[in-house]
Write a structure and sequence with these properties.
Shape of chain B: rod-shaped
Largest sheet of chain B: 2 strands, antiparallel
Radius of gyration of chain A: 25 Å
Strand content of chain A: 15-25%
Oligomer: heterotrimer
Structural class of chain B: mainly alpha
Helix content of chain B: 25-40%
CATH superfamily of the largest domain in chain A: Jelly Rolls
Strand content of chain B: under 5%
Chains: A alpha+beta (about 575), B mainly alpha (about 575), C mainly alpha (about 280)
Structural class of chain A: alpha+beta
CATH topology of the largest domain in chain A: Jelly Rolls
Number of helices of chain B: 20
Number of domains of chain A: 3
Order of helices and strands of chain B: EEEEHHHHHHHHHHHHHHHHHEEEEHHH
Radius of gyration of chain B: 49 Å
Chain lengths: ~575, ~575, ~280
């Protein structure tokens, strides 16, 4: 390498910084299609002058939307998949399958591309010796924009669709309707399967970034979507909960009217949490109280998103018994008990506090008495779905994790992680084999830090936890950071990542690191201003490796695991097994 | 103030990369440079940025602007030099190898060192000592052996005397090893049960030692020399073959049955037979039907009775000695003028292993004198040859004359003539003719009588010997030659002197009742196993009596038969 | 926690039982079967070589964490138990008598080193992590130079700032004579390995002594300095143990390869000298 005498020039290489719209959703989007779209509802109603010069409506449509055509019976969305796009029906009709669910085997989920054996073996010699030396062609198999969206490469039809849906309760959506916006905006799995009903169903697919931008500059659409969102999400949530899944449409309407939405804490809670952590105050004193122990209980709280702490007075303080997340119900045990023994008072036996941000649905006792499925409730009382009881979900004789550990997890908000890296430091020989394994599966670059807060003998290492609610995704301008459609691992598409650092700043756990990309020869890739081109990197849970997470496989001492901390059962199991 | 034991804080915005072989030399100062060493470990540090020439609209020259990125600290205070060079040069470092990279290096060095060690080890001068797995017996490691080997083969390495592999040097080993792997030591051969069958290495042994056909021809297979003769064990003599090697076959009923069947198909002449002692006293032994295929596991448990005893009990063999000797009478108390001990006749030789031969002159004359004339007790017949006896009897005048002159001391001629005449008359009074006298001397077997003194009156040769009449007129009667076998059991190396401690002759040889010469008087195996057994604690190995080889293996160091050069001389 | 230990105990018990069973079987086979099979040394040799290859393969398994062939944790378990069995196999192969030849002795010595280093390594990797966890001040090995430097800089800054912008000569002398070099590089490694508290105690008594001569205003600064010294001790403790956790492999791994090379040479020599080739 020629040594430059006066500056760093020998070690930099000019490169193009990937733009916001580097990879349009539909590269074949033509001008006539755009004209057609702009002339039709709802775009024709929009005021193009409200859009800034950098992101005109036409360009948003050109880059962040695509016109898709589906045949009758073709699956558009699958329930429980993760997805980031919303759909607008242009022509034809779609069926939203409400109940019963279609057999998941019929849904033909796209299998994520995994590396072949040869490609995996090639990691032995093909990995770049240069840290962050990136090849022009990304070594990842799934780095295509389409891979992060619902319209997969292969379309799947439901064979004999009318027969399959004949007994099902479906809702028809016609022209001008919108669907898919709940999971696109809330980062939650799809709440229902959607199937094209007409022989020629034309849909406009939006990326959520596009939807967000349009909502930002068009108040009418924002108001409309907010309304749909409120209605649909409440209904979708309640109809999916076994307490209420026996109801008919009118009852639902009544129930939805009775139910109240409650939001505690900040939606973008990571910033608030970071501030709190800086002040050294994360104790429960700062957490908003939803229900206080001993107060009269006038209904149940169902948690839709976020986390809550269930605690009980112990001596002069509060002892955390459990933390509960989405899908859990608080207060039902006491009410059910009251039904059996009406003489007993109806006081809350535990306190409920929101941890950071929590989104709850409150259902008053009166509505509950009217609509709740009592048979199911009687059978399931005390089980995992109703985690009033602290040791819910644990096997016979199994001990709950120590209270200190639960306190620790709650305080650090680790209970957001579905795949947190937990290391048993009593077994870990600090050999770094996990880090090396990670590097060998990620082109020679580790994607986590084997370091982090320690409680007793457990370390929660600094690796992406693949949160239930990945707040890192909130600010991404291109949708490069997304969830895999099935499994929900949070991954970053390096091809579309523009290095804006939004995700890294949003992550409350500092699990995303910006790296300065280099060429294969080690030169920094820089833009016109000689500023290094950054990429956000983090643990991708080895989604492309058939072997699963390499760090777990590589640990010689069974000290490392990736575990779901959103519930106490998995960690309790692991602690016992090890 | 007490420390909390929390981890120290450090920047978490960068990955720790333990997978890299090199780290920046400034890392130990806590400030590794942003560039980092190359994968080969060279420092690449130059400057912190590459300034950019910014030309504002209207400006002609423009000015240089710092482009240091945020991760490097952002724009620097001083800005670039006027000529556009960066003002912050990064001090060069010497990148440090990571511990793991050093370990990789250690692996490579160790491997190279090992290969070098091997190469030195198998080099010509070191090779024999390097690969030798253990000390060689004194004979095969002697200078003499080396000389003989060198003369025979011209090879410098004594290893090559046995091992083919040592002949051509290390370069040929892999081929030879592969050959052995294909044949002889193939995986299937490794689980073959013993004994080891004859292999190519035996040829090396046979260059000096006698042929392979030294055991019985009905063996199912020929066994390798090394099966019994273990080299590379000790620097002294090669250790004796263990009994287990023998019983590996002889204790195996199946194998023995196989041997028996095989033996039935083989001509009896091809079996080595004991042809008898060299003096003819010990009779030849015939191979028993079925050969020697009894199952034997131990000397003290199932070893068959000795052949001689078995055969003598069956009447197949007996002592063919022509001397008439009655042990019972000689050992009997009272009948004899004095009590006789075994040692009176059976005298040990110098080594104590054998008995000295019993001779008439030494052991019999005390009692059995050859006085034929009662009136002249001092005159005795010569012992040995019947011809001399007859000549003596036919020249009695001269014999009396010599006796009178030399023994009685009669010197006067007249006195001497009168003395001879008296004697002649006396003898002529006893026998009618000279022939009678001769016949009496040779053939009388009246037995021995003790009259007065100790000496038995001589009555005739036939008392002790078998005397046959003369075959022709002039011939003398024939007396069969007396022959006592030196040893009946020719296989065993029996040492009488070793058995004297605590044992008398009679403990083993029951002669007190033996009246016939034909009695063998040998001890049965039962009298051996009391001591030669694990209980008795005395050696009971096969090789203390038997040798595997039919003829004694000889050591050829002096006169190697295989050396043609010698044959020419 | 009681259950966790029980499970571990059960797993170890099963592994150990299996190993003892195999080792016992090997010794029994040597006693009762070997006399019948004259080439048993070749057989045990091949098995031994295969076992050594298998044991070495563990290192390659660690290099390919992305292949589906059982977790490395499982491989290590097998590695340990097969390693123990290899010790028994070694004795069976050499016939319980120390070899005489030079090559064979070299191989035997290297095997002994590899085996013993493995046993020591096992003990280290089972006992040190707990000590490290209990000791606290967890620091990744690669970051230790950085932490050490920052401790030193902190101490120096503390001293230079002094009290009332004036460093007392007594404390300056104390620092240069007693403390300065202590921060320069890892110290008292052997003492830390042996869990000796004496270096720390010695520092404490030195601080106790210097406090007598310090001005009242300097006591606070001395307290901070002592705090840094204690941190450095904790860092050295981490360093000593983590270094040992890595360094034992410097004997175990290179010599394993050496052992393999020599074993192959041994096989070639033995086969070419066997005299079995036609």
């Amino acid at each position: 390498m020629a040594q430059s005498d006066t500056n760093l020039a020998s070690l930099v290489r000019q490169a193009e910084r990937p733009p916001r719209w580097g990879e349009p959703l539909d590269p074949n989007m033509g001008e006539d299609t755009l004209d057609m779209l702009l002339a039709s509802e709802p775009f024709s109603q929009m005021d193009a002058s409200r859009f800034p010069a950098g992101t005109p409506l036409r360009e948003i449509l050109r880059n962040d939307s695509a016109v898709r055509e589906y045949g009758s019976g073709e699956i558009i969305l699958r329930k429980d998949d993760y997805g980031t796009s919303a759909f607008l029906v242009l022509t034809g009709e779609v069926d939203v399958v409400i109940r019963p669910e279609i057999d998941p085997r019929l849904l033909g989920r796209a299998v994520r591309a995994k590396k072949t054996f040869v490609a995996r073996l090639a990691q032995l010699w093909n990995n770049n010796p240069e840290p962050e030396g990136w090849r022009k062609r990304s070594p990842r198999a799934s780095d295509k924009k389409s891979a992060s969206l619902d319209k997969g490469k292969s379309s799947v039809y439901l064979q004999d669709y009318p027969r399959i849906v004949s007994g099902s309760q479906t809702a028809k959506l016609g022209e001008g309707s919108m669907f898919g916006e709940i999971s696109a905006l809330s980062r939650m799995p799809r709440t229902a399967t959607v199937v094209a009903a007409s022989p020629v169903t034309r849909l406009l697919e939006f990326t959520w970034e596009g939807l967000r931008d349009i909502m930002k500059y068009d108040p009418a659409l924002k108001a409309r979507i907010d309304k749909i969102y409120r209605e649909n999400s409440l209904k979708a949530f309640l109809s999916n909960h076994p307490l209420f899944d026996h109801l008919d449409d009118t009852s639902y309407k009544e129930l939805c009217d009775a139910a109240q939405l409650e939001t505690y804490g900040d939606y973008n809670w990571s910033g608030a949490y970071k501030r709190l952590a800086k002040d050294g105050e994360t104790a429960s004193a700062n957490e908003p109280v939803i229900v206080r122990e001993g107060d009269y209980l006038n209904g149940i709280h169902m948690i839709r998103a976020g986390f809550c702490r269930v605690s009980r007075k112990y001596g002069g303080g509060e002892r955390t018994l459990n933390y509960i997340g989405a899908g859990s119900v608080f207060g039902f045990g006491e009410i059910a008990n009251h039904w059996k023994k009406p003489d007993d008072g109806l006081q809350a036996t535990h306190s409920l506090r929101s941890l950071g941000y929590a989104h709850l649905i409150f259902i008053p006792t009166a509505a509950l008495e009217k609509f709740a499925n009592r048979e199911w409730a009687a059978a399931e009382l005390g089980s995992a779905l109703l985690p009033d009881v602290a040791d819910a979900g644990l096997d016979e004789g199994e001990e709950a994790p120590p209270a200190g550990l639960m306190e620790f997890l709650a305080e650090h908000r680790f209970l957001n992680g579905t795949k947190s890296m937990v290391i048993d430091m009593d077994r870990c020989t600090r050999c770094d084999d996990c880090v090396r394994a990670c590097a060998s599966t990620h082109d020679g670059n580790p994607r986590f830090l084997r370091h982090g807060p320690i409680i007793d003998n457990l370390m929660i290492a600094n690796a992406c936890m693949h949160c239930v609610d990945p707040v890192c995704m909130i600010g991404c301008p291109t949708g490069a950071i997304h969830r895999t459609s099935f499994g929900g691992e949070v991954v970053i598409n390096p091809a579309t990542c523009i290095g804006c650092t939004a995700c890294a700043n949003n992550c409350p756990y500092d699990s995303i690191r910006m790296v300065e990309v280099r060429s294969e020869k080690g030169e920094f890739l820089v833009d016109d201003e000689f500023q290094p081109i950054l990429k956000a990197t983090k643990c991708d849970f080895c989604v492309e490796q058939k072997s699963g997470p390499a760090c777990v496989n590589a640990c010689p001492h069974d000290a490392l695991t990736r575990t779901n901390l959103t519930r106490i059962t998995p960690i309790a199991h692991w602690l016992r097994k090890n | 103030m007490k420390n909390d034991r929390k981890s120290p804080e450090f920047a978490s915005h960068e990955y720790v990369r333990p997978n890299l072989n090199w780290e920046c030399g400034h890392a130990c100062e806590g400030c590794p440079c942003r560039i980092g060493p190359s994968p080969k470990g060279e420092c690449r540090a130059t400057f912190e940025c590459s300034p950019k020439l910014v030309t504002k609209p209207g400006e002609t020259k423009g000015h240089w602007s710092c482009t240091r990125p945020k991760s490097g600290g952002g724009k620097c205070e001083n800005g670039p030099m006027p000529d556009g060079s960066c003002c912050n040069a990064i001090p060069k470092c010497r990148p440090r190898r990571s511990l793991r990279s050093m370990r990789k290096l250690a692996v490579v060095f160790t491997c190279i060192a090992t290969v070098l060690l091997l190469l030195i080890g198998v080099s010509r001068s070191m090779r024999d000592g390097f690969v030798n797995p253990g000390p060689i017996s004194s004979v095969h490691s002697s200078e003499h052996f080396a000389n003989v080997h060198r003369k025979m083969s011209g090879d410098a390495s004594t290893c090559a005397a046995c091992h083919d592999g040592a002949k051509d040097g290390a370069a040929s080993w892999h081929a030879k090893a592969l050959g052995a792997f294909k044949e002889g030591l193939a995986p299937a051969d490794l689980i073959k049960r013993g004994p080891v069958e004859s292999s190519a290495m035996d040829k090396s042994c046979l260059a000096c030692h006698q042929g392979m056909e030294f055991h019985q021809p009905n063996m199912p297979a020929n066994f390798a020399c090394q099966e019994c003769h273990k080299e590379h064990g000790t620097s002294g003599f090669m250790p004796p073959a263990d009994s287990a090697y023998c019983t590996a076959c002889h204790g195996d009923a199946d194998l023995m049955a196989k041997s028996r069947d095989l033996g039935a198909k083989i001509s009896p002449h091809s079996f080595p037979n004991f042809t008898g002692g060299s003096d003819g006293t010990v009779p030849a032994r015939v191979r028993p039907e079925g050969g020697y295929t009894e199952v034997i596991n131990d000397f003290h448990t199932d070893h068959p009775e000795f052949r001689q005893i078995k055969d003598s009990l069956a009447g197949k063999i007996q002592d063919t000695n022509t001397l008439k000797f009655n042990h019972a009478v000689h050992m009997g108390k009272g009948a004899m003028p004095r009590e006789l001990n075994c040692a009176d006749c059976h005298e040990q030789d110098g080594r104590g292993e054998y008995q000295q031969p019993i001779t008439y002159e030494k052991h019999c004359t005390e009692c059995h004198t050859l006085q034929f004339d009662e009136t002249t007790p001092g005159l005795t017949l010569p012992h040995g040859d019947p011809y001399y006896v007859r000549a003596f009897l036919r020249s009695l005048n001269i014999q009396y004359e010599e006796f009178g002159r030399d023994i009685e001391g009669i010197t006067g001629r007249e006195d001497l003539i009168a003395y001879i005449k008296g004697k002649r008359e006396s003898i002529e009074g006893q026998y009618e003719t000279g022939e009678d006298l001769e016949h009496m001397v040779f053939f009388s077997d009246k037995g021995t009588k003790f009259s007065g003194g100790q000496r038995a009156a001589f009555t005739g040769c036939a008392v002790c010997h078998e005397v046959k009449p003369a075959e022709s007129i002039n011939a003398t009667p024939k007396i069969e030659k007396v022959a006592v076998p030196v040893r009946w059991m020719t296989l065993g190396k029996f040492d009488h002197s070793l058995h004297e401690k605590g044992l008398t002759c009679l403990d083993c040889h029951d002669v007190m009742k033996s009246e016939l010469t034909s009695d063998l008087n040998l001890p049965s195996i039962k009298s051996c196993t009391d001591c030669h057994s694990p209980q008795g604690g005395i050696d009971h190995s096969c090789t203390s009596c038997h040798t595997y080889h039919n003829s004694k293996p000889f050591t050829p160091l002096g006169e190697a038969p295989a050396a043609p050069a010698k044959a020419d001389e | 926690m009681a259950k966790k230990e029980l499970d571990l105990v059960r797993r170890r018990f099963a592994g150990l039982l299996l190993t003892i069973f195999v080792v016992g079987g090997l010794f029994a086979a040597y006693l009762f079967l070997a006399p019948l099979y004259p080439r048993h040394a070749y057989l045990s040799g091949w098995i031994f070589l295969a076992v050594m290859l298998f044991l070495t393969f563990f290192n390659f398994r660690k290099k390919v964490p992305f292949l589906r062939m059982g977790s490395v944790g499982f491989w290590l378990q097998v590695h340990i138990y097969v390693g123990i069995i290899s010790g028994a196999l070694f004795f069976v192969h050499i016939g319980f008598s120390w070899p005489h030849g030079l090559l064979n002795q070299i191989i035997a010595v290297i095997f002994a080193i590899v085996f013993v280093s493995g046993v020591i390594g096992l003990w280290i990797s089972r006992s040190f992590p707990k000590r490290l966890t209990v000791a606290g001040f967890e620091t990744p090995f690669e970051r230790m130079p950085h932490v050490r430097t920052s401790l030193r800089k902190e101490a120096e800054a503390l001293l230079l700032a002094g009290v009332d912008n004036q460093t007392s000569p007594v404390i300056a002398e104390f620092f240069t004579d007693r403390i300065g070099l202590f921060f320069a590089k890892p110290r008292n490694l052997a003492a830390h390995l042996l869990r000796s508290q004496s270096p720390l105690a010695s520092h404490r008594s030195q601080f106790g002594e210097i406090r007598r001569y310090a001005k009242r205003t300097e006591l606070d600064m001395l307290g901070k300095l002592e705090d840094l010294v204690e941190r450095k001790h904790m860092l050295d403790y981490q360093y000593a143990l983590q270094l040992t956790l890595r360094v034992w492999l410097f004997a175990h791994i290179p010599l394993s390869y050496s052992l393999l090379i020599l074993s192959v040479a041994h096989v070639v020599v033995v086969y070419s000298f066997s005299g079995s080739a036609p």
